[in-house]
Amino acid sequence: MAVNTSPESPLPVGEVSRLIGGWIDRLGAVWVEGQITQLSRRPGAGVVFLTLRDPSYDISVSVTCYRQVFDAVADVVSEGARVVVLAKPEWYAPRGQLSLRAAEIRPVGVGELLARLEQLKKALTREGLFAPERKKPLPFLPQLVGLVCGRASAAERDVLENARHRWPAVRFEVRNVAVQGVHAVPQVVQAVKELDAIGDVDVIIVARGGGSVEDLLPFSDEQLIRTVAECRTPVVSAIGHEPDNPLLDHVADLRASTPTDAAKKVVPDVGEEYERVRLLRDRARRCVAALVEREERGLAHALARPSIEDPHRMIDERAAHVADLLDRGRRCLRHQLDRADSELAHTHARVVALSPAATLKRGYAVLQKADGHAVRDPGEVEAGEALRARVSEGEFSVRVDT
Fold first, then answer.
1. For the chain, how are helix, strand and coil distributed in percent, rounded to 5?
2. Apex CA 57: angle with CA 232 and CA 243, to 5°?
3. List of residues 6+ apart from 136 with CB closer than 8 A
4. Cys-Cys crosslink for 60: which of 53, 56, 222, 360, Cβ 3.0 to 4.6 Å?
């Protein structure tokens, strides 16, 4: 419960410590999991002192237990081991110190660790942290590579030597950290965050050599997994050897089987790239030469065509054809005119021969009554009737005598 205090009525330090102890006593015994970082077994002492640490959150707490409690697991538990402890929190008022009084210690076996890792893997998979669509592509030629590894480790040497052998101009930003033990997780997480914050870093490699399942546990830690998932820079996991498969391999943008493999996958080989450029250049030269040759053949074929070889030939042929048609037209027209003229002359001659004027010219005359009616029968006229006689050169009057 809350305690009412004020500047005029403060609580003494001893009372505060007593109250804290009372609150802690009410917590009761709890099961606690952690990693043993310090272990003190003094000869002849009835109490064993150890420090239990949570590597994910960099928090430690002191643990004490009777010697017979620790002796039950002394053969399988040492510094660095993960254990589960049944302990009651205790508050040491004179020093204001919290500790745990262990009543039972159980080592965490490899099988149990793997089962927990599998549960964590399933949970993170459901969240989508391992989804392929989250993977970021690696740059073709990184200018600055971030490297997280152990100090003076074989993994660091393998990555640096292989990368510089493949591309001598590549640069590295190295962060040396603890790669196993209680300090591994916070240091690796901090190193990844620092490298991700550097804008010039194109890709980050997290590398470590092989080891046991317990040694590689920091690279399956949930805090590290979430840190890598939030990185904007592509991350390459190069942990252990080919059979090793920490959870970092699943969240990383690329998994390398070994640190050497990571160098090969991140940095291109300058010799291979020169060869690829040479092959592409030769291929381009052949393509251009084939194109030019094909166009030359097409141009030669086009120049060999009659219309290109003698461009006036078609015009001359068309002009000759037009002239021939014109001459034929003239001949046909002349023939038509001549035939029409002949027919006209023949018709004219017939008309002339059959016309009354021609008959009159031969000495004939036409008698007409006063009304202009031609006399064809003597009975049509009467004696003394005046008629008109029409001859070739004119006409005159006549009178019927009888």
1. 45, 20, 35
2. 65
3. 233, 234, 253
4. 53
Binned at pLDDT 50, 70 and 90, residue 111 comes out as low
Please count the helices (runs of H) and the strands (runs of E) in the chain: 12, 13
3-class SS of residue 329: helix
Using CA atoms of 304, 306, 309, 312 in order, give the dihedral in degrees to the nearest 10: -170
Do residues 129 and 98 make contact, with C-beta atoms less than 8 angstroms apart?
Answer: no
Counted residue by residue, the chain has a size of 402
Residue range 8-63, pLDDT digits in tens: 888 888 888 888 888 888 888 898 988 888 888 888 888 999 999 887 677 889 99
Instruction: State how far the Cα of 347 lies from the Cα of 160, in Å rounded to an integer.
Output: 123
What is the pTM for the complete model shown? 0.55
Which residues are CB-neighbours of 229 under 8 A, at least 6 positions away? 129, 134, 251
- 379 or 328, higher pLDDT: 328
Alpha helices in 270-369 (DSSP H): 270-304, 306-309, 313-354, 356-361
Residue given tokens 């990571």 in the structure block: 262
Question: Among 231, 13, 219, 26, which residue's Cα sits nearest to residue 138?
Answer: 231
pLDDT at residue 86 above 80? yes
- Rounded distance, CA 236 to CA 80, Å? 27
Mean pLDDT, the chain, rounded, equals 87
Backbone angles phi, psi at 308, to 5 degrees: -95, -40
The residue among 259, 111, 104 whose CA lies nearest residue 179 is: 259
| Cα–Cα dist 186/178, whole Å | 9
